[in-house]
């Protein structure tokens, strides 16, 4: 499902899956986002916390039961800065379409 506003949402506490990555070991990794830094998502996978870089990764996140695909390179910023960087994110999304 495509919804550009999803890039502005809080990811912590939502279920996520890595659907592509430059690191093949991360593909298929899934679980709940337990923390987020500027460059990584920390996912609780089978009781272990896995650190996944946002760069060179694509994610599928479920929010309110609906799946959304996220381009990791567009969320390389502190989570609290995403709403401030809304114009920058949307500009990049338009270029990718």
* Cα-to-Cα separation, first versus last residue: 14 Å
Radius of gyration: 12 Å
CATH overall fold name: SH3 type barrels
CATH architecture level-2 label: Roll
Mean pLDDT: 90
Count of helix runs: 1
How much of the sequence is in beta strands?
35-45%
Residue stretches low in confidence (pLDDT < 50, at least 5 long) are none
In the CATH scheme, the class would be Mainly Beta
Structural class: mainly beta
Number of domains: 1
The description of the largest β-sheet is: 6 strands, antiparallel
Overall form: globular
Strand arrangement within the widest β-sheet reads: 4-3-2-1-5-6
Quaternary status: single chain
The helicity comes to 10-25%
Name the CATH superfamily assignment: Ribonuclease P/MRP, subunit p29
Count the beta strands.
6
Order of helices and strands: EEEEEEH
Organism: Acidiplasma aeolicum
Subcellular location: Cytoplasm
EC number: 3.1.26.5
Subunit structure: Consists of a catalytic RNA component and at least 4-5 protein subunits.
Task: Pick out its properties.
97 residues; mainly beta; SH3 type barrels; six-stranded antiparallel β-sheet; globular
Question: Can you describe this structure in just a few lines?
Answer:
This protein has one helix at 86-96, and strands at 15-21, 30-36, 40-45, 48-53, 57-63, 66-71.
Structure commentary:
With 97 residues, the chain is mostly beta strands. The chain has one domain: Roll (SH3 type barrels), CATH 2.30.30.210. Helix content is 11%, strand content 40%. It contains one helix and six strands. Strands 4-3-2-1-5-6 form a six-stranded antiparallel sheet, with no helix packed on it. The longest helix is centred in the C-terminal third of the chain and has 11 residues, at 86-96. It is globular and about 35 Å long. The mean pLDDT is 90. It holds the Pfam family RNase_P-MRP_p29. It is an enzyme of class 3 (hydrolase). It is found in: Cytoplasm. Part of ribonuclease P, a protein complex that generates mature tRNA molecules by cleaving their 5'-ends. GO terms for molecular function: ribonuclease P activity; RNA binding.
């Amino acid at each position: 499902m495509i919804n550009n506003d999803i890039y502005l949402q809080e990811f912590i506490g939502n279920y996520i899956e890595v659907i592509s990555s430059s690191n093949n070991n991360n593909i298929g990794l899934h679980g709940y986002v337990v923390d987020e830094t500027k460059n990584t998502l920390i996912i609780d996978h089978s009781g272990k916390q896995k650190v996944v870089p946002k760069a060179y990764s694509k994610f599928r996140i479920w929010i309110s039961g609906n799946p959304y695909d996220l381009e990791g390179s567009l969320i390389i910023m502190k989570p609290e800065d995403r709403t401030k960087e809304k114009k920058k994110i949307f500009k990049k999304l338009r270029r990718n379409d």
